[in-house]
Amino acid sequence: APSDPDLVARARAAKEALGDRLFILGHHYQRDEVIQFADVTGDSFKLAQQAAARPEAEFIVFCGVHFMAESADILTTDDQKVILPDMAAGCSMADMAAAVQVEDCWEALTEAGVADVTVPMTYMNSTAAIKAFVGKRDGVVCTSSNAERALNWAFERGEKVLFLPDQHLGRNTAVRDLGLSLEDCVVYNPHKPNGGLTKQQLRDAKMILWRGHCSVHGRFTLDSVRDVRERVPGVNVLVHPECSHDVVSAADYVGSTEYIIKALDAAEPGSAWAIGTELNLVRRLANRHADKQVTFLDKTVCYCSTMNRIDLPHLVWALEELVAGRVPNQITVDAETARHASFALDRMLALP
Ligand code: 13P
Ligand code: SF4
């Protein structure tokens, strides 16, 4: 639907009033009505880099989800304020790993005698507390665009990796990119004693995968891939690595949102593409590439409901509050957590 013209005018006016004091970041899964106001759009990695690259901006309005805004707060200076236009924009995957559960897991690894040869690694899609846990134990953060490099780094440092919280990104990276076998991976279920694993299983495994997943990417199945190949002959199947290993193995190309955008830009006119990621992005790609056939990998509609919480009314509200001299919905990470988390985040940003 087209954006409300009144709200568009108000967002423009507020942006202009704030000038260089304001910097708006937008994740690729944001609605069209919001993304049009972003100064920079990107995948999680690019947005983390960009947040750190604007020390002169007083306010960073983050159009994305809570864990991204937390990371931006950690990576920016103490004077900068990070604002999330709707506090309910969380991430169900990040919520699947709580710090106390991860402490219990580490205890299980310790009892199995393998904690000191295990490197903890967390996907960006996790709370600041989880990043701090990882930083405290000399581990690393990754995003979907640098998971291979980060995992290689981790295996240079230890014999095993505890990968949090997305089992699919962990498995896909280990098997597809590093050549490990599926048998090298075990899944730690935080709702079972000792993760539902024996000490021997923890000793034998190379990758200990946290039992977390993305509910949006979980919608794509092997059948979705088979169906689209039948419906659209010659179609190129391009999916995000948060999809299951089955789906990723059946796809032609796999990568982060930024990778997906670049792949479509480079695609031949007339070529056909089925994209397995969030729908706001896929619709934008279909509109931008009218000379290519771009379809959604699933037959049903599937947005990320929390990404979609950030809509134009919330953005306008946040901007107008700033104009009025108030700071709404500021995201702050306490100093101790930030210190440890930034260690693991900086290590990611410094990966070759
Ligand atoms: P990227 O944009 O880094 O590919 O991440 C996808 C995602 O699910 C963010 O929540
Ligand atoms: Fe979280 Fe998945 Fe939404 Fe990304 S798409 S914010 S991983 S629920």
From TrEMBL:
<dbReference type="Pfam" id="PF02445">
    <property type="entry name" value="NadA"/>
</dbReference>
<dbReference type="GO" id="GO:0005829">
    <property type="term" value="C:cytosol"/>
</dbReference>
<comment type="similarity">
    <text>Belongs to the quinolinate synthase family. Type 3 subfamily.</text>
</comment>
<feature type="binding site">
    <location>
        <position position="304"/>
    </location>
    <ligand>
        <name>[4Fe-4S] cluster</name>
    </ligand>
</feature>
<feature type="binding site">
    <location>
        <position position="257"/>
    </location>
    <ligand>
        <name>iminosuccinate</name>
    </ligand>
</feature>
<comment type="pathway">
    <text>Cofactor biosynthesis; NAD(+) biosynthesis; quinolinate from iminoaspartate: step 1/1.</text>
</comment>
<dbReference type="GO" id="GO:0034628">
    <property type="term" value="P:'de novo' NAD+ biosynthetic process from L-aspartate"/>
</dbReference>
<protein>
    <recommendedName>
        <fullName>Quinolinate synthase</fullName>
        <ecNumber>2.5.1.72</ecNumber>
    </recommendedName>
</protein>
<keyword id="KW-0479">Metal-binding</keyword>
<dbReference type="InterPro" id="IPR003473">
    <property type="entry name" value="NadA"/>
</dbReference>
<keyword id="KW-0963">Cytoplasm</keyword>
<dbReference type="GO" id="GO:0051539">
    <property type="term" value="F:4 iron, 4 sulfur cluster binding"/>
</dbReference>
<feature type="binding site">
    <location>
        <begin position="240"/>
        <end position="242"/>
    </location>
    <ligand>
        <name>iminosuccinate</name>
    </ligand>
</feature>
<keyword id="KW-0808">Transferase</keyword>
<feature type="binding site">
    <location>
        <position position="44"/>
    </location>
    <ligand>
        <name>iminosuccinate</name>
    </ligand>
</feature>
<keyword id="KW-0411">Iron-sulfur</keyword>
<feature type="binding site">
    <location>
        <position position="91"/>
    </location>
    <ligand>
        <name>[4Fe-4S] cluster</name>
    </ligand>
</feature>
<dbReference type="GO" id="GO:0046872">
    <property type="term" value="F:metal ion binding"/>
</dbReference>
<dbReference type="InterPro" id="IPR023515">
    <property type="entry name" value="Quinolinate_synth_A_type3"/>
</dbReference>
<dbReference type="InterPro" id="IPR036094">
    <property type="entry name" value="NadA_sf"/>
</dbReference>
<keyword id="KW-0408">Iron</keyword>
<feature type="binding site">
    <location>
        <position position="214"/>
    </location>
    <ligand>
        <name>[4Fe-4S] cluster</name>
    </ligand>
</feature>
<dbReference type="GO" id="GO:0008987">
    <property type="term" value="F:quinolinate synthetase A activity"/>
</dbReference>
<feature type="binding site">
    <location>
        <begin position="123"/>
        <end position="125"/>
    </location>
    <ligand>
        <name>iminosuccinate</name>
    </ligand>
</feature>
<feature type="binding site">
    <location>
        <position position="144"/>
    </location>
    <ligand>
        <name>iminosuccinate</name>
    </ligand>
</feature>
<keyword id="KW-0004">4Fe-4S</keyword>
<keyword id="KW-0662">Pyridine nucleotide biosynthesis</keyword>
<comment type="function">
    <text>Catalyzes the condensation of iminoaspartate with dihydroxyacetone phosphate to form quinolinate.</text>
</comment>
<feature type="binding site">
    <location>
        <position position="27"/>
    </location>
    <ligand>
        <name>iminosuccinate</name>
    </ligand>
</feature>
